[in-house]
Amino acid sequence: MSTALTTSKNAPATVDPTGAPAVRISHVHKSFGRPGTATPVLDDITLDVAPGEFLCLLGASGCGKSTLLNLIAGLDQPTAGEIEVPSGRPALMFQEHALFPWLTAGKNVELALRLNGVARPERRAEAERLLELVRLGGAYGKRVHELSGGMRQRVAMARALAQGSRVLLMDEPFAALDAITRDVLHDEITRIWAERQLTVVFVTHNVREAVRLAQRVVLLSSRPGRVAREWQIDLPQPRRIESAGVADLSVEITEELRGEIRRHGQH
Amino acid sequence: MASTETTPAPADDLTGVEAGLDALDSVQIQRTPIGQLLRQKALPPLIGVLLVLGVWQLTYSLHVTASYNLPSPADVWGSLTDLWTAGTLFSIIWTSLWRGIVGFLAAVVIGTPIGLLVARVKPVRAAIGPILQGLQSLPSVAWVPAAVIWLGINDSMMYAVILLGAVPSIANGLVAGIDQVPPLFLRAGRTLGASGVSNARHILLPAALPGYLAGLKQGWAFSWRSLMAAELVASSPDLGLGLGRYLENQREGMSMPGVLLGIILILLVGVAIDLLVFSPIERRVLRSRGLLTTGR
Questions:
Q1: Prior bond of A238 cis (ω within 30°)
Q2: Would the pTM of this model clear 0.80, i.e. be above it?
Q3: Which of A89, A96, A107, A145 to mutate: most B Cβ within 10 Å?
Q4: CB-CB contact of B202 with B189 (8 Å)
Q5: Do A108 and A212 reside in the same domain of the chain?
Q6: CA separation (Å) from B220 to A187, B30, B240, B281?
Q7: What dotted CATH number matches B86-288?
Q8: B268 touches chain A (CB under 8 A)
Q9: Which pLDDT does position B105 carry in this prediction?
Q10: Which residue range forms the structural domain that includes residue A150?
Q11: Quick one: pLDDT at residue A185?
Q12: For residue A1, is it within any domain?
């Protein structure tokens, strides 16, 4: 594991005075199938995510990045090792919006509030506040199928925020969107991350997206997934995906990613 | 926009792009005007019925078969007006309809928990899932002799036959509905903190509703068929005069117009319940989920 500091400036959004990480992953192994014949998916992953950090997990397909995210989310258990999220159950956003089609946009958000224990009288106002936050103030009564792909992901974002967690896990949430819409949502997520001082773990296979968003990019190797390398990204926010700084660093990381993939062709 | 923090204003030119995208990408839902709806939905079946009546009348007029075998539409209309003037038309329909409704509701009350159990509890599914599937293909008239011996010729026997016909299809509809719930919804529900009862109430059952409704619809069809079979076979003065019994009485009296009228009334009641009760509910549910596109 090596670290490349790209610029001298280094300022994380917030620093927890106790220094405790928001997510602590220590020596996590994960394999599927029966012991003996099981193929390891994750191999000895150790990773701390600082409170308020925006971290991108980058890797080719089969590197187990989604598996790692599911483990952090508590949807699955590691075969060995430990994962701690001291602030409690993290919020999770999927590649598909996963909104419930039998509810309106607003009611989707309200359901998350309800399951989070928010009392009925406050739910409506809070749901409207959250939709306002993702710039969908007028969409409360809209059905899911009446919204565009980008709007659906923003409602999903509002619903994730309604869980009240300080830790937001995102599993390639913008992968299915067109480039222009994705740009807009990159702006939204960095703005909301800064405003709400969230800790974000963002999984992607898109290098530019990782460099556009993250303070730190962690590259996972494939089969089994290991931490191959990590980069601290100190370009000032808000960034543009088409800017030279993003492009330069993307070239470097892409080279590394290709190297990781190439290794698998040599066996 | 939250009021607490300032957004990075200068580089924020993408917000205009966002508003533009929202306007461009949103799906415009259009309702079909009522006139067009009538023309598209009501006119074709009406033409179909008129066509059948025409062919019927023609066959009668050409004397293809003896008129005691095939009476004219007017003869059947005459039987209907006879019933109307005798004042028994609605009591005959209501006797059957009431039995059908009560039996169907009882089948819903019994079939729903069975469906839930079969869908969610593996051993229960392994044990009675195949039996439920098999029962669905058994014609419910086959139960009538058994029900008569067990319960005698009375209302309980009618309800027993309805239940045996309708419960399996209602339970199976719910099982199919639950099986078809996308796993993504269940995962999303789990990350939102839904489990056990709250999961069933907020995620599982609403997600399974379209399949459940299809099961209810089929359950009604089975209830109605079972009841008619029971009324046809079982004869007793204790039982009120329902549509099935009316039909059988007409056969015994060798009145072909009455027989045809009986068949038509049974058909009409079944179709009417489907059109007036189940179809609107189903359409509403599907439309609200964007699963029904109209007017395209």
A1: yes
A2: no
A3: A145
A4: yes
A5: no
A6: 53, 32, 21, 14
A7: 1.10.3720.10
A8: no
A9: 95
A10: 100-164
A11: 85
A12: yes
